[in-house]
Design a protein that fits this description.
Layout lengths: L4 E4 L10 H9 L2 E4 L3 E5 L2 H6 L9 E4 L2 H13 L9 E4 L2 H6 L10 E4 L4 H9 L5 E7 L5 H9 L2 E12 L12 E4 L2 H10 L9 E5 L1 H9 L4 E5 L7 H13 L3
Parallel strand pairs: 1-2, 1-9, 4-5, 4-7, 5-6, 7-8, 9-10, 10-11
Antiparallel strand pairs: 3-8
């Protein structure tokens, strides 16, 4: 069955050279971007009830752009002036680069991992005497506390923002050839919004093993999967599938 329409369960990319826009151009498909989940910040009062005193920490572990935004939002709300001596441990270059929105990069102590949390661990281990704060969502990957506990560092997790299911009622009567998911929360949102969802001829594309597991548990047939050695990105996996279905271009 040919592919003409795709729904990506994430916000539309803000960069002009996104591979999704190249995919639209090359394969002549329609792609809509609608977030199935969104993030809502918790209040400074909520953070205080978690027994978090920002003055007690000397290092911040930042795992995403959201964690950057919400750490500085809470700091401002609680009138905490982040000291120049604060150390920042960033999961990836993308997170570290985003940090420049709030701090003068060259004047701060910033340590950057490669991509995964275990890859950040050696950098954290070098600074075991620091007191680490991990501002996170209510859906923290289980590997993160496991890694930090193994390092035997002084750290605290605090919920600065929550993952919330979006209202997708506008999509009730809309059909797409492919639905694309990047997290178990996206799958959860699909069935929360459409409890009677019947896959039929809809193809399901998923990114990551935890998302595959969530899709399988809900009885979905996974047709497209990334990352794989051949297709490390979702756009590459989609393009490969579209070429097979629509004829090579």
């Amino acid at each position: 069955m040919k592919v003409k329409t795709i729904l990506v369960s994430q916000p539309e990319p803000k960069i002009e050279n996104s591979p999704y826009f190249d995919l639209i151009e090359r394969q002549k498909v329609k792609i809509d971007f609608i977030p199935f989940i969104h993030v809502e910040g918790v209040s400074g009062k909520d953070v205080r009830t978690q027994k978090v005193d920002l003055t007690k920490y000397t290092a911040i572990i930042l795992t995403s752009r959201n964690s950057v935004d919400h750490f500085f939002r809470i700091a401002e709300e609680l009138r905490f002036k982040v000291p120049d001596t604060m150390k920042y441990f960033c999961l990836s270059e993308a997170v570290a680069y985003y940090l420049q929105k709030y701090v003068v990069y060259r004047k701060r102590k910033i340590y950057v991992g490669k991509r995964t949390f275990p890859e950040l661990a050696p950098l954290i281990k070098k600074y075991k005497s620091e007191k680490f704060l991990l501002p996170t969502s209510d859906k923290l990957k289980p590997e993160v506390p496991l890694v930090l506990n193994e390092l035997k560092v002084d750290w605290k997790e605090a919920t600065f923002y929550r993952t919330v299911i979006s209202d997708l009622s506008d999509l009730r009567d809309v059909y797409y050839d492919i639905l694309v998911f990047f997290s178990p929360s996206g799958i959860e949102s699909l069935f929360e919004n459409f409890p009677d969802f019947d896959q039929k001829d809809t193809r399901i594309a998923v990114f990551g093993n935890t998302t595959v597991k969530a899709a399988n548990e809900m009885g979905l047939r996974v047709d497209i999967q990334a990352p794989t050695p051949e297709t490390p990105s979702m756009t590459m996996a989609l393009e490969k599938y579209i070429k097979e279905m629509n004829g090579k271009k």
